[in-house]
Predict the structure of GntR family transcriptional regulator.
Amino acid sequence: MSRTAAPPSFTAASDNAPRVQAAPITEPDPAAVDVEGDGAPGSAGQQIEARVYAAISQALLSGKLRPGMPLRERNLAQALDCTRGAVRKVLARLGFEGKLVLEPNRGAFVPQPSLDDIRQTYRARRVLETGVIASICGRLNDAQLAVLDAHVETEARSHADGTHERSIRLAGEFHLKLIGMADSAELDAFAHQLVAKTELYKALYDPAEFMHCAPTEHAQLVSQLRDGETQAAISLATAHLDELEARVLTRAAAAETPDFRAIFAEAFAGEA
């Protein structure tokens, strides 16, 4: 059975804890929800939640947490030296963001998407991003282009430094910045969910591979947007997503198909 991240309207539960309803669609801030403090900005509770959120997110993006793995509140609280209440808040947020699956009365799990789940997500990204490119190509002002240029430079430095998790995050942020320039809150909310899922698929099934081409391709895309080369920009973005999808699907398919010859080799070893 595949486990896929819940849509925005979900109910979270873990151990014997009551169900936690999702917040309205907003772009969450690691320090936005007070966990144990007095609600004041920068309180101890907020700092704890931010630390827990960063630790679990990094483990997900580094591929250290495998598909279908359960994340138990008690174990996480002990490992991260915090309360179960802090862990519960963070798991609920990660579920809302599409980075974890929250199953009522069972708890939180690392997503285990089916091949069709992966295809559907990448298809949605292609439709969204090509539509945005068509609407903004040649229409961005100097300030917007400068933002994209600066981000590509940051991506290039991260790749040069070999910081894998940060490179994945920055690659996703480039697309979010690009979509944000369409100036639509609804598109932004949908894009955050899609990018979070594809970042996670990359980490789960392609954790050891860098997207070395990303800064170069993003720089080329910005140049095409600047020059109004709409079809070229759409083709580049589509090819980039196609390549990522193919690599993730190949590894996900291999993970889904057990090697029965290897599994049962020992049982028949004496008959040779």
Q: What stands out?
A: Residues 230-256 form the longest helix (27 residues). The beta strands are 11-12, 20-21, 70-71, 101-103, 107-109.
